[in-house]
Amino acid sequence: MIIFDQVTKKYPSGDIVLDNVSFHIKPAELVILTGPSGAGKTTIGRILIDDLHPDEGRVEIDGADTSKLKGKDIPLLRRKIGVVFQDYKVIPDKTIHENIALALEIINFDHTQINQRVTHLLELVGIPTKGNLFPQQLSGGELQRAAIARAIVGEPKILFADEPTGNLDEKTSKDIFNLLKQLNNMGTTVIMSTHNQNFLTGERHIHLEKGKITIDSQTSHPDKISKKKK
User: What are the pLDDT digits (tens) for 81-128?
Assistant: First the structure.
């Protein structure tokens, strides 16, 4: 599903943000990515969606070498990967329903299909009555649930959640983590970056320090890995 093979990424200043990083994530794995700020967690997410390119090494996603992708192939790659941001990145003057629907409108989904899909996702993430509200009318936890719904509206195979609980209280953080686990149990490959050590509950754990992997627990769950993303 995802292969990072000896990946190195440098800042324009010459500082190395990823230093010879290698890992392999199987379909339907849940991986907890930890490390201090600046360790390279967000950079991994940006490389996944081809927003950044490695200076050295190879990245393969769903069988495709990203270095060989043509411009027209990049949007197709990005449809396979949903991204959840710590600061939500919702559009403030659109309702929650409109925020979630936007990705489907861009790829010309039928209006009825869009409404059905958004309604289903609002129920799935636990905010079924919030679709007609604007972002400023929601709590932080509700906004993060909406951001998750938007990230998975196109049914991506992979979900990268970048510090999705960083601004939330302990109870809400746990609820968001449980939601990500639920999506993983449905067959989505989930990578979650976090500073919260409470989420290290037996799932695979990769820890970064100064751009290097210092821990990779390599914990696999065959019952999950055998699932196929529908």
Answer: 999 988 899 999 999 999 999 989 988 899 999 999 999 999 999 999
Q: What is the pLDDT of residue 108?
A: 87
Tell me what pLDDT residue 134 has: 98
Dmax (CA) of the chain: 50
Task: Report the phi/psi class of residue 211: left, alpha or beta, with left for phi > 0 and alpha for psi in -120 to 50.
Answer: left
Low-confidence ranges of the chain (pLDDT < 50): 219-230
Q: Write a three-state SS string for the chain.
A: CEEEEEEEEECCCCCEEEEEEEEEECCCCEEEEECCCCCCHHHHHHHHCCCCCCCEEEEEECCEEHHHCCHHHHHHHHHCEEEECCCCCCCCCCCHHHHHHHHHHHCCCCHHHHHHHHHHHHHHCCCCCCCCCCHHHCCHHHHHHHHHHHHHCCCCCEEEEECCCCCCCHHHHHHHHHHHHHHHHCCCEEEEEECCHHHCCCCEEEEEECCEEEEECCCCCHHHHCCCCC
For residue 194, report the phi and psi dihedrals to the nearest 5 degrees: -160, 155
pTM: 0.90
CATH class of 1-80+156-230: alpha beta
Q: How far apart are the first and last CA of the chain?
A: 15
For the chain, the structural domain boundaries read 1-80+156-230, 91-155
pLDDT of residue 227: 46
Distance of CA 225 to the CA centre of its chain: 18
